[in-house]
Write a structure and sequence with these properties.
The complex is a heterodimer. By secondary structure, chain A is of the alpha/beta class. Chain A has a single domain, classed as P-loop containing nucleotide triphosphate hydrolases (Rossmann fold), CATH 3.40.50.300. Chain A has five helices and five strands, in the order βαβαααβαββ. Chain A is globular and about 50 Å long. Chain B has one domain. The chains are: A alpha/beta, B mainly alpha.
Chain lengths: ~180, ~220
């Protein structure tokens, strides 16, 4: 898919991975998340919790939102909070921050695409993990949602977190850019 | 443990809600067993002789019916990605998913058996024996079936592959399940011998199933 790729991101920094469709942005994120095995080369984390691997310290937010339509918004979030484990935050508070406070008991089947994305973002807040791997995080979000999400990312960076995001549009935060694939 | 408990609770909850898999399996089981007396005819002695086999076949097919969704549903909505990279060992996660599936889809079959035994002219002892063998044997069906469910996800093929892969593995369970039930009803074997083998098959599947399924899921990362 790609070769000769070399990059480093430090805590408190954001990296925007750009490139045309099919250039391998998603594959790069899945490599970092441990969902694909690299054909060569290595991915390493310095610092962090020595007991845990990189994927175990990262949130992976893919195209699909990992939600069950039969469960309510609150049940969906609480499942991931309990399953992912670690330092957890108050679920109702997280849903409030992403603007879903009014829909706690609504089955996820009734959510719009933008609301589903907001619920997926709440997962990043429910369990604190230092690394966020975001694949097109702002898809389906409206303007106010994008502003809200930029705020969440800034908070995360301020607390020493690290963000790698594959994106086409602007992220709304200061980020260095990694362009992969040929010129578009 | 919190993580596994949360996973089991979630899977059972989904299975029991509208559109979940639990009811489908039980309804299928019910249909097969209820229709059988009509197909076989009013020969009560024949029904008694066929009873355990019918109940076991019904249970086997009913458990296969919903098994292909075990990992597929999580794969389709992206949950599997998060499960694969979580801090919980994948083998334990697989075992927890199979346990949840059995509680939601296997246990109701065992509970329904006494009522269905009446339709097949089975007496109390015979019904009890079949229910007991189902209780001991259906976990083996779920845990071996899980291997097929994991392969079906990683090979991107649906339920047909699952049936082809899993049916040969379930044949020993079927043989000893029916044998133990028949032994309790007519003899001449003792109930204990085939029943012990049935329990052994279940125990073996508890060990092999989660490891094989986890290996298949890991290997099939895409």
């Amino acid at each position: 898919m790609f070769s000769g790729l070399d990059f480093a991101v430090a805590g408190g920094e954001a990296l925007a991975v750009t490139g045309r469709n099919g250039s391998g942005k998603t594959s790069l994120l899945r490599l970092v998340a441990g969902l694909l095995a690299p054909g060569g080369g290595s991915i390493a984390i310095e610092g962090g919790d020595a007991e845990l691997t990189l994927p175990e310290q990262a949130h992976y937010l893919g195209h699909r939102d990992a939600q069950k339509p039969a469960l309510s918004v609150m049940e969906n979030l609480e499942f991931w909070r309990d399953f992912l484990g670690g330092e957890a935050a108050d679920s109702a508070d997280c849903l409030d921050r992403v603007g879903l406070a009014h829909a706690l008991d609504l089955p996820a089947a009734y959510l719009s695409a933008g609301q589903r994305r907001r619920l997926a973002l709440a997962r990043l807040l429910a369990v604190r993990r230092p690394i966020w791997l975001l694949d097109e995080p702002t898809t389906a979000l409206d303007a106010s949602g994008q502003t809200m999400f930029a705020g969440l990312m800034r908070d995360h960076l301020d607390r020493g977190g690290l963000i790698i995001a594959a994106t086409h549009g602007p992220l709304g935060i200061a980020a260095s850019e990694l362009r992969i694939g040929g010129a578009s | 443990m919190t993580a596994l408990g949360a996973l089991i609770r979630r899977d059972i909850r989904i299975a029991l809600r509208v559109g979940g898999g639990a009811l489908i399996g039980v309804l299928f089981f019910l249909t097969v067993v209820v229709l059988m007396p009509f197909a076989v005819g009013p020969d009560l002695a024949l029904l008694t002789r066929l009873g355990p086999a019918i109940l076991w076949l019904g249970a086997l097919l009913a458990s296969l019916l919903t098994l292909d969704r075990l990992f597929m549903a999580d794969h389709e909505d992206g949950s599997l990605d998060l499960i694969l990279t979580s801090r919980t060992p994948l083998e334990l996660t697989c075992a927890a998913k199979a346990l949840a599936h059995w509680i939601a889809a296997g246990l109701p079959l065992v509970i329904a058996t006494p009522a269905l035994g009446l339709l097949l002219n089975l007496d109390m002892v015979a019904t009890g024996a079949v229910a007991l063998t189902l209780l001991a044997g259906t976990p083996a069906l779920t845990f071996t079936g899980m291997i097929g469910a994991a392969l079906a996800v990683t090979l991107h093929r649906g339920g047909l592959l699952l049936a082809v892969l899993v049916l040969p593995l379930s044949i020993p369970v079927l043989i000893f399940g029916v044998a133990a039930s028949q032994a309790a009803i007519t003899g001449p074997l003792t109930f204990g011998a085939p029943f012990s083998i049935l329990c052994a098959l279940s125990l073996v599947s508890f060990v092999i199933g989660p490891f094989a399924a986890a290996a298949s899921l890991r290997h099939g990362l895409d």
